[in-house]
Design goal:
four-stranded antiparallel β-sheet
Length: 343
């Protein structure tokens, strides 16, 4: 990967130039936190921010999305409503870049999801390396996601008066080329980047009491542990944890009819395995009617099932689920308790 420089005083000019490519999205302050939103004025953007309240996946996989419009009656028709605008998403942290990689695998596996993939293909990801943990809920180092080597078009790292810019794609290089004000990173700047990366490693603690590669085994050994019943007693089954998660991709599909009952739209909407009706089938049976079973399923999916399927954990250590949880179920504590119950 090539290494370039953007001086901090030039960053607004670079961000403004990105609007020529498409819609510019970035982190902005909202309700005491940060969210990804469309950027109309560059001064709205927060270039140095902790983790956002919700993940950037909403731009590839919207909370509610119309799949197609239809008409019934004598003239039956189906009109797809695929919308994939060109978009630049600025300021994504390494953990969310890892999460986006997993979503890419899930939506391209077996039957590719055109709605997701076209939005993803028309998006540019510009990452912002975070140089210290977002807060006490973050455990990205333990999950191996506090650094990233691929999955981005550009990655910016703060090296005092400038940003070191790693290019990860031809499209990313093209953005710099069209802007034309970036500089080559000379030897001293490369050394400074390496020093910043070493300092970063010292600032991120390992919050798990074990090597995360052992997590699938701990989960398998704990299938019948009482820990799941304890979590089930605490859980409110509200679904906040999964709705805040950057790697959850379950959805429900439903038809919304117009008042004339001859036209309508088929939509999909985010769903949650923590909701009581999620595993209920037409005959009334529910495969996971107990909250304890649903909690177990969530942790097995993040720490075992998708790891076995795609080779990477579906938990990236961002801590959003713990922040969103009203009863403070914290995966750090859960994982360490699984280690404590090792046979």
């Amino acid at each position: 990967m090539a290494l370039r420089l953007i001086y901090k005083q030039d960053l607004p000019s670079f961000l403004e130039s990105l609007k020529a490519y498409g819609e510019l999205v970035g982190p902005v302050r909202k309700n005491g936190g940060f969210v990804f939103a469309r950027i109309d004025a560059i001064e709205e953007m927060a270039s140095d921010h902790p983790i956002t309240i919700t993940p950037p996946k909403k731009y590839f996989f919207p909370q509610t999305e119309t799949l197609f419009r239809f008409k019934t009656g004598e003239e039956v028709s189906i009109e797809p409503t695929l919308e994939a605008p060109r978009r630049i998403i600025f300021g994504i942290h390494p953990c969310d870049i890892h999460a986006t990689w997993l979503l890419d695998q899930a939506f391209s596996d077996h039957v590719p999801d055109t709605y997701y993939l076209q939005k993803r293909e028309r998006a540019i990801i510009i990452g912002m390396d975070c140089l210290q943990p977002c807060d006490e809920y973050s455990f990205c180092r333990s999950m191996g996601t506090f650094t990233v080597e691929s999955g981005f078009d550009l990655l910016l790292t703060d090296i005092n008066d400038a940003y070191a810019v790693q290019t990860g794609s031809i499209e990313g290089e093209g953005l710099l080329l069209r802007w034309g004000k970036d500089k080559e990173a000379v030897y001293e700047r490369r050394n400074r980047l390496r020093a910043v990366q070493r300092e970063k490693e010292e600032k991120f603690p390992s919050r798990l009491d074990f090597d995360v590669e052992n997590l699938p085994r701990f989960l398998e050994d704990s299938y019948d542990t009482l820990l799941w019943d304890v979590l089930g007693e605490k859980c409110l089954a509200c679904g906040s944890c999964t709705l805040a998660c950057p790697t959850c991709y379950c959805f429900n599909v439903f038809d919304e009819m117009h008042l004339n009952l001859r036209e309508g739209e088929r939509k999909r909407q985010w769903d949650s395995c923590q909701l009581e009706d999620f595993a209920k089938v037409a005959t009334g049976e529910n495969f996971r009617d107990r909250r304890a079973d649903r909690q177990r399923h969530r942790f097995f999916r993040k720490g075992k099932y998708l790891k076995e399927r795609y080779g990477k954990f579906a938990c990236v250590g961002c801590g959003r689920c713990a922040r969103a949880c009203l009863v403070k179920i914290n995966p750090i504590e859960v994982y360490n308790q699984l280690k404590g119950g090792e046979r």
